[in-house]
């Protein structure tokens, strides 16, 4: 990695928890002794628009913004959003994508089409892509809101530090909500790790 | 926002992951500031949201930015340290006190944080606040990350007190919302020295102002010397002397990222400009380039000093100057081989922000979209989204409070061609209290023929749901007087019988009331109250679902614009008349639906019904 900087791009939709997930990743990087900067572009309203969050960490981070073509790991909270930002990946980058689809009103009223197979398009473009259904994994664990922790579990084995570092940051976040919630998040984290352990499908 | 408990501040000397806004708040608190005021505005909102969690400081949501600046000035006159924060366009609202407080000066240290929305994620323009520092002859600091924002706020209070002058800290969205590791310190209390009566200083009549203006010019000269020797302005000599950069704010980080070996003059104090330092850099390098967001402010001053410089001739005049923007421009300047073009991004549908499920604004815009022969002047807030699909129900948006006055001007300016048009204005409760009330007074006083819809959702929705006089809670969530909008608009001259209260969820009634009021040729006000779904006042009801056997695919419900309604399949059918019709059959996402029931009102076959759970209740605005 140039300058020993790791670039992670998290993308999704306003209200999905993209910013919080990225903040927990930043906390893990800092816990490992890295310098870190986290930045995002969110649209004008509370919900429903495109959200991306950039995380850069390493010995010393200057610009907080990731340049196109330099992302090591793209963590996509929604299929079409992962496709939208896939050009930010390096040629050897990895995309970890929740394949559930959130269809916006502009598509429902018939002005635009949702891509038929966004993850297939990414693979056809030669992008190493692992996809899984984070929403179903979370629902099977009893709470759709665990999807965020499933996503963090998915990236845990693709970071330049041990997965436990990230898990400890998640546990710290939920500690005040009690042991049961912490345990649920541990299980969601493990399920996310397992989902992302499938072999990345090449072009 | 619920009550905010005063949090135990992080321990002294901790290293924290702070956004620029949080770092500013921490430094304001540590500086012993006594009074801090702001009106919410992206990207500056979180400064006061963070500050109100600290103990031993008075904080307030002011009704607008002019008010917040005057509150801070009053506190400073008492000798207290004071602070106000605003977004770039908020500084336009506060420009009136600004241009005179530069003459009076300040006593207790006063810092003004202004946050420019470079890249326009959430604003109506991209104006460059650095012009205001020059316009008002005030010093300005420009941090490049959270740590610098923290350090510069401390330095700004010191400079303010040394020179009896308010100090600007210019943030941009890329400082406000970037989180990075920040080392913080401890709070030092600051006791106000007390008010000293001095009419020649505080009463700005012409005779007094004439004596203060020369003092302002003297101060300019002193501050220029301060800037030349300020540790905030740093000349970093580099090995590669082909191009030297003058830069400030987040652009500094981008320059360092893209050109690690180049000489750079980093302007932490960018007004007054340290021209001698710039001359020293110019003498070191072959070519001088200014990298500044947004306007060529520094570039123009450098050129006026007779120094050859590049800037906006090679760099964009809008948006952020990220490394991928800088590198090709400098390569062209040096006649280097161009880099290969980046991989084209795949084409994906646009995903504009949406109104939330159960948002009361949907009822307003669906209804307006069903009315013909109307012109609707809009305003700033979530409800600006009414200009988009599927409603297309707003015709103008200018600035805070302009809906009612633009509508009034349209009424007075209409010619024969628009004689039969109905002119409406749409404004949220917080915008109305910010800058809309005077406009309504103007409309009643001048006998306007407009219908004004006040969309009262009891919060500042777009910036994240801050408390306002409309919900009767102060910034910390403590009880405060709740404004009575009926009494207020009547006091502003609207006849009592022309004030109508309608639940925005009841779209047929709303339709009828708008039709009635637009026929009457005087000012009418329609008060539409429902709480923002993101506030504690909103109570979700049981979700609706679609009976597939009854759904005829008419698609009327889709036109409400709710993000919980999804198309399951589409069909084309040919009517007996021979006309081809597109059908869209729908389902309702049971998790996203919060049971407002608006979609069921235009449903022709009564195919939408509620599942088990609490029902939506008729609602009167609490007083």
Description:
The complex is a heterodimer of chains A (203) and B (623). Chain A is an alpha/beta fold and 203 residues long. Chain A has a single domain (2-101, 116-196), classed as 3-Layer(aba) Sandwich (Pyruvate-ferredoxin Oxidoreductase, domain 3). Helices cover 38% and strands 23% of the residues of chain A. Chain A is built from 8 helices and 6 strands, in the order E-H-E-E-E-H-E-H-H-E-H-H-H-H. In chain A, strands 2-3-1-4-5-6 form a 6-stranded mixed sheet, with helices on both faces. Chain A is globular. Chain B is built from 19 helices and 22 strands. In chain B, the strands form 6 sheets. A 7-stranded mixed sheet of chain B has the order 3-2-4-5-7-6-12, with helices on both faces. Chain B has a 5-stranded parallel sheet with strand order 14-15-16-18-17, with helices on both faces. In chain B, helix 15 (360-369) packs across helix 19. Strand 2 (35-42) of chain A pairs antiparallel with strand 8 (179-183) of chain B.
Please summarize what this structure is:
The complex is a heterodimer of chains A (203) and B (623). Chain A has 203 residues and is α/β, with parallel strands linked by helices.
Q: CATH first level of chain A: which class?
A: Alpha Beta
Enumerate the spans of chain B where pLDDT stays under 50 for 5 or more consecutive residues. Answer: none
Number of helical stretches of at least 4 residues of chain A: 8
Q: How far apart lie the N and C ends of chain A?
A: 23 Å
Taking strands numbered 1, 2, ... along the chain, how are they ordered across the largest sheet of chain B? 3-2-4-5-7-6-12
For the secondary structure, the number of strands of chain B is 22
Question: Biggest sheet of chain A, strands in spatial order?
Answer: 2-3-1-4-5-6
Q: Quick one: CATH superfamily of chain A?
A: Pyruvate-ferredoxin oxidoreductase, PFOR, domain III
Domains of chain B (count): 4
Strand content of chain A: 15-25%
% residues in beta strands of chain B: 15-25%
Output the structural class of chain A.
alpha/beta
Residues in helices of chain B, as a percent range = 25-40%
Mean pLDDT of chain B: 94
Q: Regarding quaternary structure, how should these chains be classified?
A: heterodimer
Largest sheet of chain A: 6 strands, mixed
For the record, the CATH architecture of chain A stands as 3-Layer(aba) Sandwich
CATH homologous superfamily placement of the largest domain in chain B: Thiamin diphosphate (ThDP)-binding fold, Pyr/PP domains
CATH architecture of the largest domain in chain B: 3-Layer(aba) Sandwich
Largest interface (CB within 8 Å) is between:
A-B, 54 and 57 residues
Number of domains of chain A: 1
